[in-house]
Design a protein that fits this description.
Alpha-Beta Plaits, 2 domains, 4-stranded antiparallel β-sheet, 10 helices, 17 strands, about 25% strand, elongated
């Protein structure tokens, strides 16, 4: 069985490495993972994604059945403000481990390492290879680590992929599509006392934001898991001084979609709405820049081996059916989502320790009982992989 004490210690050690993105800490974090893998008697494969940014791949060889690919990202979001504890302390309080990346997702990495360690220590030969991939740059628009993994040709069509991201130990089988955009409006500067001689770019942008939000919220698309499309204006900047008509405005948009809307439809939609707004402001212009890669909606198949395996293993461990998240948590786009989007695989899912509600927050934490439960489920799934792969296909209950 997996050693929970090691998982706790590994989670703390990883938290104590500053791997904020942007930054250079991913390199140190990757080196730590490589050493940990080497200590198990396995040989880490290091693949360079960018300068000081390497994906780390560790494979425990198994039989000929489909491989289990476990994903975990090395980077975290910036610390931010409002912490009452050391964000790099890895402190334990009331059965929770605190620190930046505790649940998103250094706890998940520790679980993956714990699984490999236990399999190696007990000389277990799984029915299929168990592969852990520690990626870089998951928290950035380009998700360069996942893109590199797919582009390298390492993955196979029948790989079963799981990201141990925070899901509150619920199963996440679908993710919303996501597009990040920067919109710029150019107006005309003028003295505020003679505002009629200028074109107020802030006013134009505000109108675009308002109309776009109303339009997206009124779209007739509703998914049984993902809910409705969502729009957020994340940043809005305009103007040079209080008494000057702002000559330029810039805003960043976060647009999340659900089927049947296509990710390719997002930019034309914004262009149409912005163009309609500018008809009321002769002389104003706008431009749209995409941030990062397009992220289409993805969904795993109910009969995928990874889904059946998780449900079966969870029931064996917990004595109850694996709860499936509804419209909470599926907003987050993970490396598993990107792999699914780039390969067309329907065998990619998310299940892990900690809550999405605690990710990216001050005083982020991962509950130790979550680490234990996810570890036991992963061990059970690997142990019964042969049975799972050869069992008849059937839809398992979702709650």
């Amino acid at each position: 069985m997996i050693d929970l004490t090691k998982i706790i210690a590994d989670t703390q050690s990883l938290i104590r490495i500053d791997s904020q993105n942007p930054g250079v800490g991913e390199a140190e974090c990757g080196e730590w993972v490589s050493r940990r893998v080497s200590d198990m008697g396995l040989t880490p494969m290091v693949t360079t994604v960018q300068k000081n940014r390497d994906n780390i791949i560790a494979t425990l060889p198994g039989g000929d059945l489909p491989r289990l690919i476990i994903l975990g990202h090395l980077d975290t979001v910036p610390i931010g403000e409002g912490w009452s504890l050391d964000p790099f302390g890895g402190e334990i309080r009331e059965d929770k481990i605190y620190g930046r990346g505790a649940c998103d997702m250094k706890g998940g990495i520790a679980v993956a390492l714990g699984l490999l360690d236990a399999l190696s220590t007990h000389n277990v030969t799984p029915a299929g290879d168990v592969v852990f991939v520690a990626t870089v740059d998951e928290e950035a628009p380009d998700m360069a680590g996942a893109h590199h993994l797919v582009a390298s040709g390492f993955l196979r069509p029948n790989d079963q992929v799981i990201a141990l991201e925070p899901t509150g130990t619920k199963l996440r089988i679908a993710q919303m599509g996501l597009r990040w955009l920067t919109v710029k409006v150019t107006g005309k500067m003028a003295h505020a006392g003679r505002a009629h001689l200028g074109i107020d770019s802030a006013h134009v942008m505000a109108r675009i934001v308002d109309r776009l939000k109303s339009h997206i919220e009124a779209l007739p698309y509703v998914d049984d898991i993902l809910g409705r499309p969502r729009f957020t204006c994340g940043t809005f900047n305009a103007g040079v001084a209080t008494n000057v008509v702002p000559p330029a405005a810039e805003a960043s948009f976060d647009i999340r979609i659900v089927p049947p809307m296509l990710i390719e439809d997002v930019i034309p939609m914004v262009e149409t709405i912005a163009g309609a707004v500018l008809q009321d402001f002769p002389g104003a212009t706008f431009s749209i820049e995409a941030l990062g890669a397009p992220r289409p909606p993805v969904r795993a198949a109910d009969d995928a081996l990874i889904i059946r395996g998780l449900r079966s293993a969870y029931k064996a461990v917990a004595g109850s059916s694996l709860p499936q998240g509804d419209d909470d948590g599926h907003e987050a786009y993970t490396d598993a989502s990107m792999v699914a989007a780039l390969t067309g695989s329907t065998s990619c899912t998310v299940f892990g320790p900690g809550s999405t509600d605690r990710a990216h927050t001050a005083d982020e934490f991962v509950p130790i009982p979550d680490l234990e439960l996810v570890s036991e489920v992963m061990w059970q799934m690997v142990s019964q992989w042969d049975v799972i792969c050869h069992s008849t296909t059937e839809k398992a209950p979702t709650s």
